[in-house]
Design a protein that fits this description.
six-stranded antiparallel beta sheet; five-stranded antiparallel beta sheet; 227 residues; 23% helix; alpha+beta
Length: 227
Amino acid sequence: MYFSVTDYYDPIGTKQIPSKCPCCGTSNCLELQFHQKRIETAFSKKITSNVSGKLFCDNTQSEIAPVVWTDEIEQYYLNEKSILKLQPKRLSFTKWFYILLMLPLSIISVVIGYNVFGQNDYESESEAIEQVSVGDKIMVLYTTTDSANVIDNGNTWFLVKKIDADSIWVQRHKVFATEGDANFDLATSKFTEETLKASLKQFKTRGLFGHDYPAQKFSGYITTLIK
């Protein structure tokens, strides 16, 4: 249905002519009928300037084919066709056209909006991390290592305990989620695991690393900070 093209022929005028019918020979029984072509699809409607005509005999109640028209009938046809008042040529669009037009634009707008929102959210989070203070809580993608071998990795939270010069001390939450999401109780009393001394410079760029990078036993990426 949505891809079909349908031609319509709208009546725009009739004219009784005195010529004899070329089929039955009766006078004053012929009528010229004129139609203007309209094309419709599921997406548009177009009124054309294409005009067609047919000859109808009231006596025999039948249409007279153009091949048997006399010169007189043909002349009547051309004269009447030249003075017809046609509907103006026009192209209009259906609601389906506008729906299809707006759909990709809407999708693009949503994607752009989502990216802008995500970028703004990321920048706000990064700004908060740069302004870290004692008592803040951070969520970290955390990895522990031993002699360059990964011992464990997952998600956990840390509590900022101290900031001094170029160092920051954070204490790990007792819950360490290695698979899926865990239910973290962020009460201060739940931060009972090891306390790490890390580089404040790296921290402000979302990295949780020690000052002695080759010898460190941990690393992490900060995803969230809560004041």
